[in-house]
């Protein structure tokens, strides 16, 4: 470098950008730089020989946590919180410590110091690895170096903020630099040359003098109900002129604003906000979520459903379906799905012509991988996960993510690998033997942080200049347009008491107060307003990213400056009124709107033409499938022929379905063990089986917060079994078959009907009865089925069992949740009879209706029965008319049926 002066514009907010900056054509110059505190520190340290290895903040927290573990005693002021949440305590105390160092603290406290300061000093004295320096310590090191050295090149510094607005240790650095010959002067505040409203606001902000309201459009506040409303207006306004003298303060930016700009062929402003929900960044938290007991089916389903999951897609799909069938682990559904995944993998490897020993080795690795990502052994969340195993998981994720990055070429996987490596460093630095779930969750949040910016979220080159905050404006511009002028979080309260502050002041330590931070913040937005030469536009959405937002304090100062009446249309413009106007003027630009033509939604459609050759009559059908085909042919075709089905990764089954599956499993095991239970013993054993099966089939009930639901469900199932056994014993019946699978052909060219009967009971006189177990919120629907003579499933089970039993038994429902029997005949149960059903007649009607439906499909017509028929279409006249299954159908958005309205 030559001896040319280095000119630095130094501002508190300039680390992430500035206006003007070195890339601006009108301001670019060799030897000039706009820097924030971090950039300036880096510059000084490089040239003064103080470069150190950067350490991630989560690692510093972990190292400080390690110090606290050695320093904490029962009488420490932080001992109680440290016991409950060590990570959060370490993070908070580290922030306190760093703030003290930024105020000039040296990490020591004598006997006269208040108790809390002495205890923090004791943490500093713990013999442990050197804690990486905070900004305050880096400033102290520079101050020490400047006593013997000076900056090696001529340096000229222009402070954007007044020196008095900088923290104490920074002011000391400025003094030290000045003593070494560095030229340092403060930025000259813009004078505020605007006229009209703008000039009045600028004068008020500098002198406090109010002005009468003056309507000239130089100050505009856009009051919008939502970001999307504001985005359309702002994009229209920007599209109306060249904007070469405009600075856009984008705040966090908005995808909605970028979308509106792109729609008008304008450059995107860019989105600063980050997200931790990108696929690659979810792998690490979800893998750790699978380590805890109880098993969390929702989080595991999320892991399986990631577009790039560490579990191969075929195995992931099968395991996801198993979780949907029985939300748990290690039950029959899970074991079968795992076995099928291994078999499928073996077939694929064999198809590639591999040798048997190679296939065996690869299959063993395949199974080990599944068990690593979804472990059989899980850990108590309070006791914690062994840190050695947690580090192993991190390193495994690093390897996997790097492989993905090399394969896919997506840099996001490199970020995921960095996060996993950083978490491993944090775990090592913490020196903990076991890591509780809450502490690990805190570490993950700290490592992943706000995540990464979305792909394509960067801003594009534009005629206007873009900054992230008002504090980054260090020169004048014709128009200042502030997107998202909403209130931000207030500075954290000062944690120190008056006594502690007095001692610190005596020791030469000056922690920065919240008031000092607010003054610096106000100076930043005042400077931005004074930098506007002709127009100031504030965009104030009442809702940002789905959350309510309140206006920035500047709006209150504008209202005071101009003596505005509430809701004045001269300055405060409601976007909704502008949207309804064909033409409106905003800040001297005319925005023209054209009315949109309404588009009618497709009308509900009852008759759907289909290729007649695709609906081949099924070779096998279940009673449930027959019921769906009769109830709505279109729904059946979409599910079974078009194979349009919800993804297994969408979500868990509803509570009724899950508990119903669990009840079936309990009763199947109960009656498989023995058939001659006493009433009392059956109820007790049902509770034991419930406890055994919940982790396998209903692990949702074991999640934190579900304790009451778990207890109630356990009691309800025990009661249901007790009442069921009471019915059985009083009727003189025995359980003969449980979950009995039966098949029977409808005819020579008809399908095989296949069903599984829950319970087949036998009386001593040889008569048999069928009971179908149901768990639903109410018994009304099934009772109405019997009353109306439409219990197709019961009729099918009775017909199916006829050949096996030599008789066609009566059948009914046992409603488990209500502990109530609904039966098709008056015998054998005393009070379960529901009149209205003849099972033989119902089955005869069902088979005739089935034939009618199949013929219509073969003719190329599928009916959406939930849609009312028109006069031209005629009505369906069927032997068995079932209600459309709209309440449980996933295809309603297609046919647009309106259940209950026809």
Outline of the structure:
By secondary structure, the chain is an alpha/beta fold.
Task: Estimate the mean pLDDT confidence.
Answer: 91
Q: Which residue ranges are poorly predicted, with pLDDT under 50 across at least 5 consecutive positions?
A: none
Oligomer: single chain
The general outline is globular
Helix content: 40-55%
Domain PD-(D/E)XK endonuclease-like: 621-896
Protein name: PD-(D/E)XK nuclease family protein
Organism: Microvirga aerilata
Spell out the key features of this protein:
902 residues; 24 strands; six-stranded parallel sheet; 13% strand; alpha/beta; globular; Rossmann fold
Topology, element by element:
Layout: E1 6-10, E2 32-35, H1 37-48, H2 57-71, H3 79-84, H4 86-102, H5 115-124, H6 135-146, E3 155-159, H7 168-179, E4 183-186, H8 196-207, E5 219-224, H9 227-239, E6 246-249, H10 255-263, H11 279-289, H12 297-305, H13 313-325, H14 332-351, H15 356-373, E7 385-386, H16 387-408, H17 411-430, E8 434-435, H18 437-448, E9 465-467, E10 477-483, H19 498-506, H20 514-530, E11 532-541, E12 543-544, E13 547-548, H21 553-561, E14 572-574, H22 575-579, E15 583-586, E16 589-592, E17 607-609, E18 620-621, H23 623-631, H24 633-640, H25 655-673, H26 679-697, H27 707-730, E19 733-745, E20 752-763, E21 768-774, H28 780-787, H29 792-805, E22 810-815, E23 820-823, H30 839-858, E24 861-863, H31 892-895
Parallel strand pairs: 1-2, 1-3, 3-4, 5-11, 5-14, 6-9, 6-10, 10-11, 18-20, 21-22
Antiparallel strand pairs: 7-8, 12-13, 15-16, 17-24, 19-20, 20-21, 22-23
Helix pairs in contact: 1-6, 2-4, 2-5, 2-17, 4-6, 6-7, 9-10, 11-12, 11-16, 11-17, 12-13, 13-14, 14-15, 16-17, 17-18, 23-24, 23-30, 25-26, 26-27, 29-30
């Amino acid at each position: 470098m030559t001896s040319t002066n280095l000119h630095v514009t130094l501002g508190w907010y300039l680390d992430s950008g500035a206006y003007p900056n070195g890339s601006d054509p009108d301001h670019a110059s060799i030897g000039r730089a706009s820097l924030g505190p971090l950039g300036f520190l880096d510059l000084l340290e490089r040239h003064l020989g103080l470069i150190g290895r950067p350490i991630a903040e989560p690692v510093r927290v972990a190292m400080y946590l390690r110090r606290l573990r050695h320093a904490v005693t029962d009488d420490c002021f932080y001992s109680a919180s440290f016991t409950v949440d060590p990570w959060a305590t370490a993070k908070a105390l580290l922030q306190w410590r760093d703030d003290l160092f930024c105020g000039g603290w040296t990490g020591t406290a004598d006997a006269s110091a208040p108790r809390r300061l002495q205890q923090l000093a004791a943490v500093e004295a713990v013999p442990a690895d050197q804690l990486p320096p905070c900004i305050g310590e880096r400033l102290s090191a520079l101050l020490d170096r400047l006593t013997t050295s000076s900056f090696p090149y001529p340096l000229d510094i222009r402070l954007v903020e007044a020196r008095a607005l900088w923290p104490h240790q920074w002011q000391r650095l400025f003094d030290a630099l000045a003593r070494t010959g560095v030229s340092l002067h403060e930025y000259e505040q813009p004078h505020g040359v605007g006229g009209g409203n703008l000039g009045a606001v600028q004068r008020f902000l500098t002198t406090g003098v109010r002005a009468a309201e003056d309507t000239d459009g130089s100050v505009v506040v856009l009051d919008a109900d939502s970001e999307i409303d504001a985005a359309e207006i702002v994009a229209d306004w920007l599209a109306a002129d060249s904007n070469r003298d405009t600075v856009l303060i984008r705040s966090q930016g908005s995808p909605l604003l970028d979308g509106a700009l792109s729609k008008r062929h304008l450059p995107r402003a860019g989105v600063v906000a980050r997200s931790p929900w990108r696929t690659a960044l979810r792998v690490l938290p979800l893998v750790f979520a699978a380590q805890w007991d109880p098993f969390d089916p929702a989080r595991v389903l999320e892991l399986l459903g990631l577009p790039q999951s560490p579990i191969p897609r075929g195995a992931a799909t099968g395991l996801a379906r198993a979780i949907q069938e029985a939300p748990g682990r290690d039950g029959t559904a899970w074991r079968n799905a795992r076995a099928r995944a291994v078999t499928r993998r073996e077939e694929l490897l064999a198809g590639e012509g591999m040798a048997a020993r190679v296939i065996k080795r690869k299959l063993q690795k395949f199974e080990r991988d599944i068990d690593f990502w979804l472990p059989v052994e899980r850990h108590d969340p309070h006791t914690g996960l062994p840190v050695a195993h947690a580090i192993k998981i991190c390193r495994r994720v690093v390897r996997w993510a790097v492989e993905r990055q090399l394969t896919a070429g997506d840099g996001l996987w490199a970020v995921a690998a960095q996060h996993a490596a950083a978490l491993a460093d944090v775990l090592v630095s913490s020196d903990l033997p076991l890591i509780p779930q809450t502490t690990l969750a805190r570490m993950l949040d700290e490592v992943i942080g706000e995540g990464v910016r979305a792909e394509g979220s960067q801003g594009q080159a534009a005629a206007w200049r873009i900054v992230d905050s008002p504090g980054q404006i260090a020169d004048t511009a014709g128009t200042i347009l502030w997107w998202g002028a909403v209130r931000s979080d207030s500075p954290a309260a000062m944690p120190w008491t008056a006594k502690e502050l007095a001692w610190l002041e005596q020791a030469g330590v000056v922690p920065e107060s919240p008031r000092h931070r607010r003054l610096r913040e106000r100076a930043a937005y005042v400077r931005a307003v004074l930098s506007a030469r002709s127009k100031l536009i504030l965009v104030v959405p009442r809702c940002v990213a789905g959350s309510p937002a309140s206006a920035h304090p500047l709006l209150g100062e504008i209202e005071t400056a101009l003596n505005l009446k509430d809701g004045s249309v001269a300055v405060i413009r409601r976007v909704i009124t502008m949207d309804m106007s064909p033409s409106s003027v905003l800040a001297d630009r005319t925005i023209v709107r054209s009315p949109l033509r309404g588009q009618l939604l497709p009308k509900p459609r009852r008759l759907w033409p289909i290729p007649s050759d695709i609906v081949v009559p099924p070779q096998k059908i279940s009673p449930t499938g027959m019921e769906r085909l009769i109830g709505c042919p279109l729904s059946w075709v979409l599910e079974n022929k078009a194979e349009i089905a919800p993804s297994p990764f969408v979500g868990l089954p509803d509570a009724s379905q899950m508990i119903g599956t669990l009840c079936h499993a309990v009763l199947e095991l109960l009656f498989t063990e023995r058939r001659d239970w006493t009433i009392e013993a059956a109820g007790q054993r049902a509770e034991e089986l419930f406890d055994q099966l919940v982790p396998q089939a209903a692990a949702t009930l074991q999640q934190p917060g579900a304790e009451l639901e778990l207890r109630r469900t356990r009691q309800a199932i025990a009661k249901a079994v007790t009442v069921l056994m009471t019915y059985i014993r009083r009727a003189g019946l025995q359980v003969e078959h449980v979950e009995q699978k039966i098949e029977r052909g409808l005819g020579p060219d008809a399908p095989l009907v296949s069903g599984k009967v829950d319970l087949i009971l036998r009386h001593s006189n040889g008569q048999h009865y069928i009971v179908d177990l149901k768990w639903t919120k109410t018994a009304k629907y099934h009772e109405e089925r019997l009353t109306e003579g439409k219990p197709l499933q019961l009729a099918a089970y009775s017909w199916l069992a006829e050949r096996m039993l030599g008789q066609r038994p009566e059948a009914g429902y046992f409603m488990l949740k209500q502990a109530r029997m609904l039966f098709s005949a008056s015998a054998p149960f005393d009070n379960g009879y529901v009149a209205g059903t003849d099972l033989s007649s119902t089955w005869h009607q069902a088979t005739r209706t089935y034939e009618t439906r199949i013929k219509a499909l073969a003719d190329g017509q599928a009916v959406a029965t939930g849609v009312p028929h028109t006069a031209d279409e005629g009505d369906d006249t069927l032997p068995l008319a079932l209600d459309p299954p709209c309440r449980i159908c996933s295809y309603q958005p297609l046919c647009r049926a309106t259940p209950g309205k026809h």
